[in-house]
Amino acid sequence: MLTTLSGRFLILTTLFVMLAEVLIFVPSVARFREDYLMSRLERAQIASLALLADEIIDPALEVELLENAEVYNVVLARDEVRNLMLSSDFEGTIAATYDLRESTSLDLIAEAMVTLVRPGNQVIRVIGDPVREAGDVIEITMPTAPMRRAMIDYGIRILFLSAIISIVAASLLFFAVRHFLVAPIRGLVDAIASYASAPEDARRVIEPAASVAELREAEVALQTMQTQLTGALRQKDRLAQLGSAVAKISHDLRNVLTTAQLFADRLETSTDPAVARMTPKLLGSIRRAVNICEGTLAFGKAEEPPPSLSHVSLATVIHDVIDGERLAAGDLDISFAEDVPAGMSIRADPEQLYRVLGNLVRNARQAIAAGPGQGEIAIRAVETAEDWRITVSDTGPGLPPRAREHLFQPFHSSGRGGTGLGLTIASDLVRGHGGRLRLVETGKSGTVFEIVLPKALVRLDAAE
């Protein structure tokens, strides 16, 4: 309870109410003592009037009058003459004299506290003004024990009543605070926690609804901050997506243009009749570069553009990829193998399929070049009733553990100098076809990736 706002408020309220009751209790007890003494003076005055009516009074009646007034002696001053009206014997001496005519509020409070803390029975003298001007001064002697008992009884009643008032007031304030303060604050905290879990979601921005002016100001300030933060996060995310898109485009553009440059270099120095055969490939590489550059006009999205599906000759695409990579391999002892059924046609975007296979074959070539320096890269394809399956395997050294942990994540390369975007691009493009790209196996004997393209149209979210 001490750790909650409502609990602390309950305790503080109880303490403050009790303090207020104590501040009321002390003057109340002092006033009770004053009233008690005044009542004894009035009783004594009434007893004296009986004596004035009959100057000779029976001793038994005198004792009864004194007992009824709860005093020992009564002295009444009239016409500047001081007369002992009633008297009786008592033990002890007079301990103190109190003149109610001259007592201030502080004097009454101090005298009441002294009476409460001083035990035993003492005899005191009390002086006051007679009621209705029935004389000049009236003076009595009386015991303190009955008065002290009456004061204690009165004090207990006051404290009990104060405790009840404190509990009721504290409870009402406790529930009021919980309803008007704690509940809105808890709602504010829940809104902050909800927003923190997904700050990009504009639906989680708080809507000011508090009826308390201060809390509403806090909600308005929080709403402004959340709105600005959401906008900043969206802008930052958009810039990050833009950077990712540009990096992907630059990656593929560099690779395609590198292939085109190799063809161009060959054309400049060769008189081989094979130039006529290579010229269409050069034109195809340049056309791909142009298409990728045109993609920069729409990189407001981080995703690749949707594929333009058509029936494609898989063997033709694979042959183009291998021709480019064979040329890029140069003097390396790398062999390329194709195992594609004759006339096999698949439904895909030819440009994106080229990029997927190009990235996989290029990664395999780089792995072999960085490892043993010789090996084989094989592309195989099979067709089932539900899908087309294409595997790209190599005899390289396999993927290192770090690359396996961050497979298909951007900017996590295999440590061989790449940008770490090849597999990310390939995975995105395959997923855009409704298919999947997965690592089948990797180890010292090589690595195998598999592309699965469904024959039926599959929604992207279902594929994911």
UniProtKB/TrEMBL annotation:
SUPFAM superfamilies in UniProt: ATPase domain of HSP90 chaperone/DNA topoisomerase II/histidine kinase, Homodimeric domain of signal transducing histidine kinase
The protein's enzyme class: transferase
Segments forming domain Histidine kinase: 248-457
Listed transmembrane segments: 6-30, 158-177
SMART domains: HATPase_c, HisKA
Substrates-to-products reaction catalysed: ATP + protein L-histidine = ADP + protein N-phospho-L-histidine
Key word Phosphoprotein present: yes
Keyword Lipid metabolism belongs to the record: no
Keywords assigned by UniProt, alphabetized: ATP-binding, Kinase, Membrane, Nucleotide-binding, Phosphoprotein, Transferase, Transmembrane, Transmembrane helix, Two-component regulatory system
GO MF term list: ATP binding; phosphorelay sensor kinase activity
Enzyme Commission number, as recorded: 2.7.13.3
Pfam families documented for this protein: HATPase_c, HisKA
Entries under PANTHER family matching the protein: PEROXIDE STRESS-ACTIVATED HISTIDINE KINASE MAK3, SENSOR HISTIDINE KINASE
Protein's name in the database: histidine kinase
Species for this entry: Palleronia aestuarii
